[in-house]
């Protein structure tokens, strides 16, 4: 069997609704690695926020911040940060509209505006995190790989039109990720596959959210979790069971990659 690259999202995919990996998932990933396949976590989280899951699963390869950084054997091999000049404009634009912005480095994050604490808390709390601390000058002191803007869908068109330099990907009803344009988990997966000599048709991706659609589309086999929304499932070749019902293991068994 040819070597595969298997890339998996964290929230709603690798983690159950109890926010921990299932035993079947842990065992399946270990079996994949023992068989010589390349297992990569591909998440919208920063390294800081993904660190506990990376450690728990024993993963040494990971794509973070929706593709803005990538690591093989814990060594950074890819980097795409947000443009500081455009970011400054966006912070001013958001402030005029009383929209909160949080910025993420590899191992730190902070809010650079503070207007609507409940919106921030609701979005961050959806994956078990608190609201970022306020640090007005964060972006001038750190490399910024990703941001979050905390607004609902009524402001989507306005922000997207104002900042074509960034991709704004909705992940919660009250928040969008801010990533470089072009930039995505999908593009970084392709770059890593090329780097290690794995053909695109041997890429397998697992995901459940809007920021997974592109990587489900590009993969030789895109696997949507059973808990994904309908439009995410439509992007996949295969729909498996949910993140609470051994979805990852069942799909890998169907693909004859584990027993």
From TrEMBL:
Please tell me whether the keyword Hydrolase is annotated for this protein.
Answer: yes
Q: Has the keyword Ribonucleoprotein been applied to this entry?
A: no
Q: Which Gene3D superfamilies match?
A: 3.30.1240.10, HAD superfamily/HAD-like
Q: Which InterPro entries match?
A: Cof, HAD-like_sf, HAD-SF_hydro_IIB, HAD_sf
Instruction: Name the Gene Ontology molecular function terms of this record.
Output: magnesium ion binding; phosphatase activity
Keywords linked to the UniProt accession: Hydrolase
Q: What is this protein called?
A: HAD family hydrolase
Gene Ontology cellular component terms for the protein in this record: cytosol
Spell out the NCBIfam families in the cross-references. Answer: Cof-subfamily, HAD-SF-IIB
Identify the Pfam families for this entry: Hydrolase_3 (PF08282)
